[in-house]
């Protein structure tokens, strides 16, 4: 591991830098990445943001979004930039499997790898780590990295502030999750003072749905929602055919699991969706129930205690059956 003083020395002169984030980036992934990008370009660095895959249209308004390179659409260019990079910042993920094929290219790249993340159990691929599982978002850690590690808070301009506010807002559930501490509110207030238009950002992210998405949401809640009252569990399941029928785009399924969790008395909600390669699971829970434990133990995934994800190589029906078969093991906790 390199020290912060060594990193400061490196960042004092122009470097070739790549910033990347996890598969199917969300608001925190793009907010932390583009916020860091907007900070570093002010210092004269040559910076590229490379995402492993595409990401939701409702995040395309973000400052410098037009500069983002999508690996699946520009593999050769992405690999060239990774191999030429002096520094590679990894935002909002801590294991290289989270960035698909791009992960092995980064593992083999000669540049220093720098992790900024808040997830459990990091893989040891990094040369510098700014990591805290108690942070509500990677964007919070980027703010802390700029302000408290590098002591360059004066470089948080409107673009940086808008991106970091987006990451914090989305990963804290609009500041309603327990991770949204008073310290997080103070950071948000500072970002607003520095130019983040909080009302506009909320509108662009949350009030920007397509007609297809709303109709699909109605279908999920009316026809696909199953309540298991014996376990205080709610499940929404979606097939690949249903995704096709509603012409679902990247990001259209985001947040649907939270509607199941919002039902009175529900302690664990699952959104189980059939994708082209695997069946994906998104779990949300309340209180101390360990959604991440289920994902890690049974579905090759993980995450936070109350928000986790995983995947299954089984078909949709068998994955649903497996998930239900697990519930008796947790019945006591679910009924508390």
Write the layout of secondary structure elements.
Layout: H1 4-11, E1 16-21, H2 27-42, E2 46-51, E3 69-70, H3 75-84, E4 87-91, H4 102-108, E5 112-117, E6 128-131, H5 138-149, H6 158-171, H7 182-193, H8 198-206, H9 211-223, E7 225-228, E8 233-238, H10 240-245, H11 256-261, E9 268-274, E10 279-285, H12 291-298, E11 302-303, E12 307-312, H13 316-326, H14 331-335
Parallel strand pairs: 1-2, 1-4, 2-3, 4-5, 5-6, 8-9
Antiparallel strand pairs: 7-8, 9-10, 10-12, 11-12
InterPro entries: DDH_dom, DHH_sf, DHHA1_dom, Oligoribo/pAp-PDE_c-di-AMP_PDE
Domain DDH: 16-168
Pfam family, one: DHHA1
Description:
- The protein has 336 residues and is of the alpha/beta class.
- The protein folds into two domains: 4-206, inorganic pyrophosphatase (n-terminal core) (Alpha-Beta Complex); 211-335, Roll (Diaminopimelate Epimerase, Chain A, domain 1), CATH 3.10.310.
- The chain is 41% helix and 18% strand.
- It contains 14 helices and twelve strands.
- Strands 3-2-1-4-5-6 form a six-stranded parallel sheet, sandwiched between helices.
- It is globular and about 60 Å long.
Jot down its keywords.
inorganic pyrophosphatase (n-terminal core); Diaminopimelate Epimerase, Chain A, domain 1; 14 helices; alpha/beta; single chain
Main beta-sheet annotation: 6 strands, parallel
What's the order of the H and E elements? HEHEEHEHEEHHHHHEEHHEEHEEHH
Strand content: 15-25%
Unreliable segments (pLDDT under 50, ≥5 consecutive)?
none
Straight-line N-to-C gap: 43 Å
Record field, number of beta strands:
12
Number of separate structural domains: 2
Instruction: Describe the strand arrangement of the main beta sheet, using strand numbers.
Output: 3-2-1-4-5-6
Q: Portion of residues in helices?
A: 40-55%
In CATH, the homologous superfamily of the largest domain goes by the name: inorganic pyrophosphatase (n-terminal core)
Rg estimate, integer Å: 20 Å
In the CATH scheme, the class of the largest domain would be Alpha Beta
User: What is the mean predicted local confidence, pLDDT?
Assistant: 96
Indicate the CATH architecture of the largest domain.
Alpha-Beta Complex
CATH topology of the largest domain: inorganic pyrophosphatase (n-terminal core)
Structural class: alpha/beta
Contiguous helical run count? 14
């Amino acid at each position: 591991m390199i020290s912060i003083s060594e990193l400061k020395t490196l960042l004092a002169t122009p470097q070739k830098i790549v910033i990347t984030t996890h598969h199917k980036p969300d608001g925190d992934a793009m907010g932390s990445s583009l916020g860091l990008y907007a900070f570093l370009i002010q210092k004269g660095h040559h910076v590229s943001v490379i995402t492993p895959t595409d990401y939701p249209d409702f995040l395309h308004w973000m400052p410098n979004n037009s500069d983002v390179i999508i690996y699946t659409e520009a593999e050769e260019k992405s690999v060239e930039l990774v191999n030429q990079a002096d520094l590679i910042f990894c935002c909002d993920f801590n294991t290289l499997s989270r960035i698909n094929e791009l992960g092995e290219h980064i593992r083999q790249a000669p540049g220093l790898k720098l992790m900024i993340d808040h997830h459990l159990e990091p893989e040891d691929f990094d040369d510098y780590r700014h990591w805290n599982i108690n942070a509500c978002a990677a964007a919070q850690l980027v703010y802390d990295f700029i302000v408290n590690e590098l002591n360059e808070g004066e470089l948080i301009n409107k673009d940086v502030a808008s991106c970091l506010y987006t990451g914090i807002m989305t990963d804290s559930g609009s500041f309603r999750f327990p991770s949204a501490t008073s310290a997080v509110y103070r950071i948000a207030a500072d970002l607003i003072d520095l130019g983040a238009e909080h009302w506009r950002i909320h509108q662009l992210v949350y009030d920007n749905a397509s007609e297809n998405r709303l109709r699909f949401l109605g279908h999920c809640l009316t026809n696909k929602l199953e309540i298991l009252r014996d376990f205080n569990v709610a499940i929404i399941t979606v097939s690949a055919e249903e995704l096709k029928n509603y012409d679902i785009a990247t990001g259209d399924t985001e947040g649907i699991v939270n509607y199941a969790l919002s039902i009175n008395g529900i302690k664990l909600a699952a959104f189980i969706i059939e994708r082209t390669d695997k069946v994906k699971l998104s779990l949300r829970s309340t209180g101390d129930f360990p959604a991440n434990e289920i994902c890690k133990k049974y579905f090759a995934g993980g995450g936070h205690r109350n928000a986790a994800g995983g995947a299954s190589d089984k078909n949709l029906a068998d994955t649903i059956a497996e998930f239900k078969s697990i519930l008796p093991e947790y019945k006591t906790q679910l009924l508390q």
